[in-house]
Amino acid sequence: MVGQATPSQRSGKAGRMAADPKELIRERLNIADVIGEMVVLKPAGRGQMKGLCPFHSEKTPSFHVHLDRGFYYCFGCQAKGDIFDFVMQTQGLGFGEALRLLGARAGVDVGKPTPKDDRRRDLFDVNGVALAYYRSQLAGEALAYLHGRGLTSESIDAFQLGYAPDGWDGLLKHALTKGVRDDALLAVGLLVENERGRRYDRFRKRVMFPIMDAMGRVVGFSGRVLDDDQPKYLNTPETELFRKGELLYGLDRARPAIRKSGEVIVVEGYMDVIALHQTGFVNAVAALGAALTEQQAEQLARLDAKRVHLAFDADEAGQRAVLAGLDQAVGRRLLVDAVRVPHGKDPADAVLEGDVDAFREALAAGLSEVEFRFRRVLEGFDRTTIDGQRAILEELAPVLTPRDVFDPVAAEMRRLVVDHLGMDGARLDAWLEANQRRQRPLSGTQVRGMRRGRAQSDQVRTVELEIVALLLSRPGQLRGRLDSVLAALPERVEGSALTDLVALCEEAGYDGERVLLGYRERDDGALVFERVLALSREEDGPRFDFDAALTKALSRLRELRLEARKETSRSRLLARREELGRLLEDPGTGSEQRPAVYAELQQIHAMLSAREAERRTRVPAKHGRGRRRR
Ligand SMILES: [Zn+2]
Fold first, then answer.
1. End-to-end CA distance of the chain
2. Can you tell me the mean pLDDT for 1-22?
3. CA 78 / ligand 1 centre spacing (Å)
4. Mean pLDDT along residues 326-345
5. What is the Rg, in whole angstroms, of the alpha carbon atoms belonging to the chain?
6. Which of 5, 40, 232, 236 could hold 304 in an S-S bridge, CB 3.0 to 4.6 Å?
């Protein structure tokens, strides 16, 4: 205890340090372990880890923890401090309470609570007294009801279920004997006050479900009737401790499983959560309202949850309603799907009646929110027209634009667009990147350019046919000119118009006239004839420079081929990036493997950024030249 050091502790440096509980706690607890319970941390270089900041909303991790020095710092919001500050700031505790909380964890005696101890601690204690009372009252009819629903004694103990007996002042009287004042009971919502100022128990004749915060402390209760009385469930009203929109029932127990699997099952009812945990679905939680809020989603994202199964008891129409009613911010953050609970039951009945496998299958077959949203946008437009595709892309742009390297929602939407609209992935990415810097309406030409393969091969083909036409417009010089063209383009591309020309020339013994006639049989013949004819007219003009025209066409073709190669390597990088992302999401990927994955991701990121920077410097240069000419 402070100030009561033994003689041996009083002498020597080690003794003095050990006498300070704050220092002892710091020595014994690893800051990364404590913070890691709320924030998923990833290695970030020597002695550092980083994760998504719990103090501000962000998409890329800027929250750094320095392990040796024992403090954290956020580059986004400048939040900083040590292990005590973290607990105080995230839990809304005073220093004394943080000291006791961490002291208990580190096995360090920090002395008795001082009179300064704040009100919140008192309120948690009040709920604790109520919890003990309700638990002591669980027997007879109420216990039989829970067993009747299929809950085991282990589940009832694990979730600390209890019973509020019939009567107006059971809890009130009990609490008074424990030294708890009725003002405190009123403050946590356990009492109700009528107009005449009379105070009585809020919960009467109900099975009691205590509701914990992420730290496992009781913040409120929900009471369920045993018969058909209304309301079926009664909750603690919003209080200092009980904030419905921020709480997820069962999260304190589900947290390890969520972090491990990256998946979470969200249900409506407390019974559902307990029944699912009892049958092995230990990553189940309940939203305390009718829908998942943004704050709840944020908490789940911080635990590295990527996929959320919404198992609200729903038929097929209900599934769609659930997704349609989903907060857009939630759908943007996590991969959500709506599960159709087998046989139209609620999840608790489904799994307790033995349909565990059916429920597991239902989880796997959920209706994906991303796909649902994609289909809804498709319905609004004609995707067979350029105009329709343009509108669809503009509508989806906010979702398609990745929030960070591991944005699972953007990746999923991109896959749908690439597959169903026939867009070229690399070109789509290029547009999204440009659009992020400067938003401009998308043009039909841009959309055409994004369509897979089409645009580029069209351009290449046009330039190739131009070269063929140029060569054929001077039949007498065909052989010599063709040789120099082939020398300038050493790469021989299968099926290209130039390769075809070489084959035709060899067949016709390099007789220009015969080669030209050979084009009559070909699909591209009309184009070649038309161009040769046009050239013969241009050649009569005073300004025509044959060599310059041929050189220009050749350099354009080289440029196009280079671009195509770059795009192939870019798509390869993007594909690899996706693959690595999946590897990180896979819980089977060992921790020894991860540093290498992060290193490679960083490398890919650097390569993509360098390429993008190069592209950016190239574009304005062209504009500059254009302006100078004027
Ligand atoms: Zn921050």
1. 84
2. 47
3. 6
4. 89
5. 35
6. 40
Cα 327 to averaged position of ligand 1 atoms, centre (Å): 23
So what's the pLDDT on residue 8? 40
HSE-CB at 118 with a 13 A cutoff on CA atoms is 12
8 Å CB contact between 56 and 90: no
- The three-class DSSP label of residue 325 is coil
Fold topology of 246-372: Dna Topoisomerase Vi A Subunit; Chain: A, domain 2 (3.40.1360)
Pairing of strands 206-212, 199-201: unpaired
264 confidence band (pLDDT: 50, 70, 90): very high
The yes/no answer on whether domain 7-106 falls in CATH 3.90.580.10 is yes
Q: How confident is the model at residue 120 (pLDDT cuts 50, 70, 90)?
A: low
For residue 64, the CA-to-ligand 1 centroid distance in Å is 9
Question: In which band, very low, low, confident or very high, does the pLDDT at 201 lie, cut at 50, 70 and 90?
Answer: very high
Mean pLDDT value across residues 238-244: 89
Return the amino acid letter for 424.
D
Q: Residue with structure tokens 């007879």?
A: 140
Residue 497 token pair: 């118009």
- Name the CATH architecture for the domain at 119-242: Alpha-Beta Complex (3.90)
The rounded distance, in Å, linking the Cα atoms of 259 and 431 is 35
Per-residue pLDDT at 394 exceeds 60: yes
Burial pattern 365-392, b for ≥16 Cβ within 10 A else e, equals: ebbbbbbbbbeebbeebeeeeeebbbbb
Q: How confident is the model at residue 337 (pLDDT cuts 50, 70, 90)?
A: very high
3-state secondary structure 70-89: CEEEECCCCCEEEHHHHHHH
Q: Measured in angstroms, how far is the CA atom of residue 565 from the centroid of ligand 1?
A: 41
When pLDDT is averaged across residues 128-136 and rounded to a whole number, the result is 96
